[in-house]
Amino acid sequence: MVKLSVVVPFYNVQTYAPETLESLRTNARDDFEFVLVDDCSTDATHDILRRAARELPGALLLRHERNAGLATARNTGIDAARGEYLAFLDGDDWLAPGHLARLLAAIEELGCDFVRTDHVRCTGKARTVHRVPVGRRGEVLRPRDAILPAERSTSVDYPYAWAGMYHRRLVDRGLLHFEDGLRTAEDRPWIWRLHREAESFAAVSTLGIFYRRGVSTSLTQIGDARQLDFLRAFDRVIEETAADPDSGRLLPKAVRTYCAIIAHHVGSIDRFEPPVARALRSRSAAALRRLPQDVLRAALDTMDDERASLLRRLRRRPALRTEVAA
Fold it and tell me: Which pLDDT tens digit goes with each residue over 223-271?
């Protein structure tokens, strides 16, 4: 019987994959499996993974015939996973030895649907600890209670799928899959759905995930059109939250977060290619006009002057004909 399945997507990470795979080896157990998903890499990543499939205990290698993005690669791994519990890791990150066993022991002792844990952010040689924004540790909590308050960072603002472990019953309930085709912000609808619909979770201080920032192939470093998928991702968050029976309390948080992300991207617009920058402004303005305007006004009133002014100007941009037609 497989106790834990770890889903690990890879795409053109030949420089980092050996360290990722070695960290899996130092976490291997007879009842663990590692579902390695090659998202149609074009460098030496697939050759590295083929060797790993022979040498890494519990490894299962899957390969996409075309690049489909992180969300779809994770879904491929979830569909193939056989474990009672599931976890995620990205192909350029790594784990401390024994981390998975410690996290598994924590979730089994707590008996909850999922646990969230802290991580170490690695930018070059710099190391910083980032903690789950949940104050009560090692205690089973109601997930939707961790969504609010709207004006503070909460658990839905810590969306990293790899920073946790999840019981298979979440797969059975349709809560663990990601939205196919999203190239960025794929974890935002996912974390909101988990917190609205799962029954129990806990935050634990099991530090052992190392998240590599500043990778040149990461979409966060590339200013092309794929970055704009954050708009589709947050549109889904708004749509699903608006349909929730408790939307009156939860929607202000969703709208405020959407506004903050739009302000972040538009505020750093120079990193985008010119056509993408134009599309970013236009589509962000349209997104602001789609939001419930009373909730939007209240959200802007709680934000700092710089971001609020940027968003108000953006909302007043004339709608393009294509937006009106849509």
Answer: 678 899 999 999 999 999 999 999 999 999 999 999 999 999 999 999 9
Cα gap 236→231, rounded to integer Å: 9
Q: What are phi and psi of 61, to 5 degrees?
A: -105, 125
115, two tokens: 């646990």
Between the CA of residue 19 and those of 122, 226, 227, 296, what are the distances in Å? 14, 27, 27, 45
For the purposes of burial, counting CB atoms within 10 Å of the CB of 50, is it exposed (0-12), middle (13-18) or buried (19 or more)?
A: middle
Distance CA 220, CA 223 (A): 8
Prediction pTM value: 0.93
d(CA 148, CA 99): 30
The sign of the torsion formed by the CA atoms of 297, 303, 307, 308 equals: positive
Residues 187-226: tens digit of each pLDDT: 999 999 999 999 999 999 999 999 999 765 554 545 678 8
Contact (Cβ atoms closer than 8 angstroms) between residue 23 and residue 57: no
Distance CA 284, CA 288 (A): 6
CA 76, chain centre distance (Å): 16
Q: For residue 301, give the amino acid letter.
A: D
The amino acid at residue 124 is G
Q: What's 244's DSSP letter? A: S
CA–CA gap between residue 251 and residue 247 (Å, rounded) = 5
| Amino acid letter for position 8 | V
CA dist., res. 163 & res. 134, Å (int): 13
